[in-house]
Amino acid sequence: MKLYYSPGACSLSPHIALREAGLDFDLVKVDLKTKKTDAGDDYFAANPSGYVPCLQLDDGRTLTEGPSIVQYIADQAAGKKLAPLNGTFERYQLQQWLNFISTEIHKSFSPLFNPDASADSKATARKTLDARLATAAAQLSKTPYLLGESYSVADIYLFVTLGWAGYVGVDLAPWPALQHFSARVASRDAVQATLRAEGLIQA
Q1: Where is the GST C-terminal domain (predicted)?
Q2: Which of 11, 17, 21, 42 is the Cys-Cys partner for 77 at CB 3.0 to 4.6 Å?
């Protein structure tokens, strides 16, 4: 498998999942401004949308969109229990959280990274983000992970989005449960290895 990524972007989520799953994969770094890989290849050839992540399978097929990719990864290493079994109620709960993080938390961060976004749009995004973070915090104040006692790919995705807070001036102090959660996930060996591989922490 081959994961197209950009350091610190949402592709960090499937990158962590691949390491947690113990799967063999290659990394291809993408410059999101030029849409070129480190080797100078046209990234649009792999993903016409031009954004990361993109997972290319050994047979050439590709998957895009983080929530789909992380579920695929989890299913390739079922013994790691990164996702509940397909068809169970718990699997639908996982999808519920993946969708919530994608559409409500991830997307609420987007205007805050956009230098062309107006002050009003950023203020609106912050207000929405605060409400959505409170929802996640409410769950994590009761259980260590989003699905209860079991660590899953939804926790990986939430961890990645929470990591953006410091870059855009979002203070997580009002939600101690989120801070404790982030520290818990960050302490995992696979997470540390991924952060080092992307140059986000020193080796």
Answers
A1: 87-203
A2: 21
31: tokens are: 């410059």
Amino acid occupying residue 20: E
Query: Are both 2-81+190-197 and 89-188 of the same fold?
Result: no
Contact between 2 and 56 under an 8 Å Cβ cutoff? The reply is: yes
> Rounded to an integer, what distance in angstroms lies between the CA atom of residue 15 and that of residue 60?
19
Rounded Cα distance between 155 and 141, Å, is: 14
Domains of the chain, residue spans: 2-81+190-197, 89-188
CATH hierarchy code of domain 2-81+190-197 = 3.40.30.10
Give residue-wise pLDDT tens across range 99-127: 999 999 999 999 999 999 999 999 999 99
- Name the pLDDT band for 202 (thresholds 50, 70, 90): confident
Q: Give domain 89-188's CATH architecture.
A: Up-down Bundle (1.20)
Whole-Å CA distances, 142 to 90, 132, 137, 171: 17, 16, 9, 21
Q: What share of the chain is helix, strand, coil (3-state, %, to 5)?
A: 55, 10, 35
* pLDDT tens digits along 78-107: 999 999 999 999 999 999 999 999 999 999
Both tokens of 108, joined, read 């609420």
C-beta separation of 11 from 52 below 8 A: yes
Q: Count CB neighbours of 143 within 10 A.
A: 13
DSSP 8-class letter at 42 = B
